[in-house]
Write a structure and sequence with these properties.
single chain; mainly beta; three-stranded antiparallel β-sheet
Length: 109
């Protein structure tokens, strides 16, 4: 999948807002059917009740990961001009051996 990031700092030579594309991200999740969730608790981070007719929150443990690997054209950045994609911004590339991982789990280890 593609992840779009708008950097909160200027990376273009003219100071224009920039949009970067991280292509080839892997997104995965594991839903456990018997292991209870243990973190965060509802008392620490209250979860609002779902609207009537909505799906109920998953009561068990879950893991979610997003992994982005470097390589040619990663990241692929462009200036934003009036909300439209403009000129390419050369920010270099991450080596193909580098990986960024974002992970979440709702249980303690």
């Amino acid at each position: 999948m593609q992840k779009i990031v708008i950097p909160n700092v200027t990376i273009s030579s003219n100071g224009a807002a920039t949009e970067c594309f991280y292509n080839g991200n892997m997104f995965s999740g594991v839903l456990y059917t018997k292991m209870p969730k243990t973190y965060p608790s509802n008392t620490t981070f209250p979860i609002p009740a779902p609207p009537s007719g909505a799906y109920q929150p998953w009561p068990y443990a879950v893991e979610v990961q997003q992994r982005a690997s470097g390589g040619d054209g990663v990241p692929d950045c462009y200036q934003l001009m009036n909300g439209n994609t403009g000129a390419h911004v050369d920010v270099g590339t991450e080596s193909s051996g580098k990986t960024c991982l974002c992970a979440y789990q709702n249980y303690g280890t």
